[in-house]
TrEMBL record:
Signal sequence range: none
Residue ranges constituting the Calcineurin-like phosphoesterase domain according to the UniProt record: 38-215
Pfam family, one: Metallophos_2
InterPro entries, per the entry: Calcineurin-like_PHP_lpxH, Metallo-depent_PP-like, Pesterase_MJ0912
Family according to the record: Belongs to the metallophosphoesterase superfamily. YfcE family.
Protein's name in the database: Metallophosphoesterase family protein
Species for this entry: Cognatishimia coralii
Amino acid sequence: MNVKDMGEIDGDMLLFGGPYSNLQATEALLIEAAHRGIDAAHMVCTGDLVAYCGDPAATVDLIMDARIAVVAGNCEKQLAAGALDCGCGFESGTTCDRLSAGWYAHANAEVSVKHRKFMAQCHDIILFSQSGKKFAAIHGGVTDIARFIWSASTEEVFAEEVDALRAHVGEVDVVIAGHSGIPFVKEVAGVTWVNAGVIGMPPHDGAAQVRYAVLSEGQAEICELSYDAEGAKARMVEVGLVQGYDITLQTGIWPSEDVLPQALRR
């Protein structure tokens, strides 16, 4: 495991996942961070810089130029390795599995050698402390980078991941995770588990706003972010990514509900 320790953090932090090649949402997030007085040294991304949307290269450039700490997601791992699929862990034959071929091929064609080198250097775990608590940021799970962990996942799933994390980095109080795309905060398996959500796609709730989290004095709050969803959709249409996720940017409803546990379906 490639682990980075940011040390003690004074002041608020902004946590987010899944820019998903959504340049407009990433630009809006940086504006929101500046409005809150949070600089890049106090920001952590839980990975998947590229995915469904139309601007993979420009989105990665924006994150790189801002010098934001990024946890390696499965998309970073796969692109850095020159793999031919996203490694998302979708079940064969599901809508997500079928649709991922299109957006991954676009991202794979667009990102440069420079981007892949940056992705290869992203850390598996990022540690920091705030207000007497130790935090560990990961992507999906420790046992499996692409493990989907939901608010509805069993206690056993959380306990397995917390045990695996502690085996690598020792005791932690709070886990910051991403990958699954739907934010939540849950006290489970002896930690606070925070999925900060993603900024590249709305969380299947019928609205266009995306999500991120703000950490203040050791407490996480899930926040909404409005951005130019019309512009992001237009870019997807321009590059031919019209498999359904383009419509999701407006409707807030995923075309891939079959990836969700029953309790989170509409």
